[in-house]
Amino acid sequence: MSHFAIFGAGSFGTALAVTLARQGHRVTLIGRDEKTMTELNTKRENTRYLPGVLLHPNIVCTNDLGQGIHVDYLLLSVPTQFMRDACVQVRTIAPASFYKSTSVIHVAKGLERVTGKRVSEVILETLPALSASRLAVLSGPSHAEELAQNVPTTLVATSASKSYAEEIQDVFMSDTLRVYTNPDLIGVELGGALKNIIALGAGISDGLGFGDNARAALITRGLVEIARLGVALGASTATFGGLTGIGDLIVTCTSRLSRNWNAGYLLGQGMSIAEVLPKIGMVVEGATTTKVAVEKAKSLAVTMPIAEAISDLLDDNCSPREAVLGLMNRKKTHEVEERFVEASIGWTTQ
């Protein structure tokens, strides 16, 4: 069995630690705060981020990143906006042998605020000695609470290297966790990041009491916006019809376990984003990703009306109802876009 170090002791990092430990792997769970990690070792439960789930005996908790260097796999499970700093910490202490003996995985779902870069781009830029062929992304529809409780879950592994993606697939697969591979690294990362924007919208809609019709429309048209920007950035359309596209979108837009949906719901109830974030108590990736995505879309002449409406709401430029009214009163248009369909599909009569 392998030795994993997981940098980031939040809900998902803890859930992955439990999952891997159950499979027989050694896991070192690394957090920033010494007191917190000592308590995790003693109480064997992450009461703040994943209450009710006992830590497996194969898990050792520490705040010493040095214990995560001489391992088989370093899994980065920190929020997107902290990923660059996390990698700088790794680079500061990692010897040359680290880049030959340790492979890296990340599970973040966002875009960096300042640069607009995908997480894998941030990692490779900050760790220049790391080969792209030894960096993988693990993503898909996966609530930490369900993953930790052995509820059947599916994920996608992607990498610049097919063999490394398949290696990650083999390592993570179990009776309750099925992993697929996908060569579209750009699409997998963008699907995971951009769905958080639409989840905010779904929460806003539910907070306004609009019901199933509106939510279904947001999910469907939101997927179109994700695909528009994704394709413009080099992703494959097919990826957005898979687990890291529509799959992750469904689970994030329809579940009360989703922090982005919950944040949107509170926005729909009339709270400002400044009031919402402390109440959620955990990182809401969609709040940052919305701004970055809208800026990218404008620079590429990509239309993203839902994302733009949510961005305006986050900036307090409109109320939730005004945002919805603006979307409903846009200029009429055709549903199916030519770039996403076969040329043979069209009207039989004009």
Key descriptive features of the protein:
Rossmann fold, 49% helix, eight-stranded mixed sheet, alpha/beta, 350 residues, N-(1-d-carboxylethyl)-l-norvaline Dehydrogenase, domain 2, two-stranded antiparallel ribbon
How would you sum up this structure, described in words?
The protein is an alpha/beta fold. It has two domains: 3-183, Rossmann fold (3-Layer(aba) Sandwich); 186-340, N-(1-d-carboxylethyl)-l-norvaline Dehydrogenase, domain 2 (Orthogonal Bundle), CATH 1.10.1040.10. Helix content is 49%, strand content 13%. It is built from 15 helices and ten strands. The strands form two sheets. It has an eight-stranded mixed sheet, with helices on both faces. It has a two-stranded antiparallel sheet with strand order 3-4. A hairpin with a 3-residue loop joins β3 (45-46) and β4 (50-54). The longest helix is centred in the middle third of the chain and has 23 residues, at 185-207. It is globular, with a radius of gyration of 20 Å. The termini are far apart. The model has no long low-confidence stretch (mean pLDDT 96).
